[in-house]
């Protein structure tokens, strides 16, 4: 997906692909590169003014931090995701956010 979006200039799709790839890399133990790609993808989406589904993307970023043993760094991502839910009414990822928050607090 990253190759195709680069070739055709689909910036939104490229950003989402970077976020997903970053999460996958972190889950495979390549945490630093995964976090870099997550940050880059989210920054581009924010620059474009894209708000949905921000809670899901922030949750993936938090999970990448947790995978790297950086639980404290991931908590602000979850807090921002919950604030986003309150501000937009976006609810489709809310249950997963609560589950993740529980795992973070247990860690």
Fourth-level CATH superfamily = Tetratricopeptide repeat domain
Instruction: Calculate Rg over CA atoms.
Output: 14 Å
How much of the sequence is in beta strands? under 5%
User: How many domains in all?
Assistant: 1
N to C succession of SSEs? HHHHHH
Q: Explain this structure to me?
A:
This protein is 81% helix and 0% strand. By secondary structure, the protein is mostly helical. The chain has a single domain, classed as Serine Threonine Protein Phosphatase 5, Tetratricopeptide repeat, CATH 1.25.40.
How would you briefly describe this protein structure?
The chain has 6 helices and no strands.
What labels would you give this structure?
107 residues, mainly alpha
How is the topology of this model organized?
Layout: H1 2-8, H2 11-27, H3 31-48, H4 54-67, H5 71-88, H6 94-106
Helix pairs in contact: 1-2, 2-3, 2-4, 3-4, 4-5, 4-6, 5-6
